[in-house]
Design brief:
Blueprint: H1 3-28, H2 38-54, H3 64-68, H4 81-87
Length: 102
């Protein structure tokens, strides 16, 4: 595995641990400083917006995943696996269709 992928996986592990701690704090009524800041949230929204923009045409025959043969058929609203994965964090929100899961 390359160093960049190792770095990203480690950061995800750290984030998951911070989120576990935050959930535990919420359940027990404990208050600790949260290390995930609003700025971080804005960065993640920017990331998702850029990915969605880059994969906007996937599934139409004109997207990057279409050229790779990794897009879904045009009748599938997800477009490509990247778009389906972008929607996964919102699976618990009203309006999310179960068929959109990756």
């Amino acid at each position: 595995m390359d160093r960049f992928a190792q770095f990203l996986r480690r950061q995800l592990d750290i984030d998951l641990e911070l989120l576990r701690q935050a959930r535990q704090d919420a359940e027990t009524g404990t208050h600790r400083a949260c290390l995930i800041t609003p700025i971080r949230g804005f960065r993640e929204c920017e990331l998702k917006t850029r990915l969605l923009t880059a994969h906007h045409h996937c599934g139409t025959g004109n997207g990057p995943c279409d050229a790779l043969g990794e897009s879904y058929p045009p009748e599938d609203e997800r477009g490509c696996p990247t778009r389906a994965l972008l929607g996964l964090p919102y699976a618990d929100r009203p309006g999310y269709a179960p068929r959109w899961r990756p």
